[in-house]
Amino acid sequence: MTRKFFVCGNWKMNGSKKSIGELIQTLNTAKLDPNVEVVCAAPAIYLELTRSKLDPKFSVAAQNCYIVPSGGFTGEISPAMIKDCGMDWVVLGHSTRRHIFGESNEFIGQKVAHAQENDLGVIVCIGETREEKEKGITDQVIFAQMKAIADNVKDWNKVVLAYEAGWAIGTGNAASPQHVQQIHAKVREWLKNNVSEAVANSVRIIYGGSVRGDTCRELAAQKDIDGFIVGKGSLKPEFIDIINAKA
């Protein structure tokens, strides 16, 4: 089965009206591979600005959401609000949310369920820390994360899985293509054994962790790498090269 290449630019807590406007202008005028689905995950306060200025061929994602439609939850935004403002996607379970803000597998699973109830696509992150990698428990960690996600998914057509090598994020050094391919193949096998072969074959599994313009092509050539979630690099001109990694 052919899976459409998927690239998400995760702007994290970066940008201003001026710099985001310049970035959007670059994206809107760039020559991009038409066979790639591109999503920009903007900071919440700039979501509507981004959606209003970005070419409709791009989708826009929120970087997080809460688990109820509304209420006394200061600082949170709900999937209903995200949808109401014209966004199609939300990023959930990012390593930042897991390891800085202490979000558990169970909590991230609840977020997945609520986002899907509101017809949002979810880009849901999985991955191990350096400590977990060194202990040799990568598979155990990722499979536990996967179970919490799978238990809450109603529509796999609106799910993109993002493997983040937590120990590579922000270092400038991506995990090797061989390592990433091995992890992605294990995730696909887990899906085959625990969800269905059809889902295993169709769901897109993308990679995040210091993806750069000069390393993305070798990663993109791997059988089970269906795209990227890009942090720092998505704020730079090289994001165009990453989008065009398979061109």
UniProtKB/TrEMBL annotation:
Lineage top rank: taxon: Eukaryota
One term under GO cellular component: cytosol
Pathway(s) annotated for this protein in UniProt: Carbohydrate biosynthesis; gluconeogenesis; Carbohydrate degradation; glycolysis; D-glyceraldehyde 3-phosphate from glycerone phosphate: step 1/1
Keyword annotations of the record: Gluconeogenesis, Glycolysis, Isomerase, Lyase
Presence of keyword Isomerase: yes
Gene Ontology annotations of biological process type: gluconeogenesis; glyceraldehyde-3-phosphate biosynthetic process; glycerol catabolic process; glycolytic process
EC number(s) reported in the record: 5.3.1.1
Alphabetical list of Gene3D superfamilies matching this protein: Aldolase class I
Known catalytic reactions: D-glyceraldehyde 3-phosphate = dihydroxyacetone phosphate; dihydroxyacetone phosphate = methylglyoxal + phosphate
InterPro entries in the record: Aldolase_TIM (IPR013785), TIM_sf (IPR035990), TrioseP_Isoase_bac/euk (IPR022896), Triosephosphate_isomerase (IPR000652)
A GO term, aspect molecular function: triose-phosphate isomerase activity
Function in brief: It is also responsible for the non-negligible production of methylglyoxal a reactive cytotoxic side-product that modifies and can alter proteins, DNA and lipids.
Name this protein carries in UniProt: Triosephosphate isomerase
Taxonomic source organism: Pundamilia nyererei
Chain's gene name: tpi1
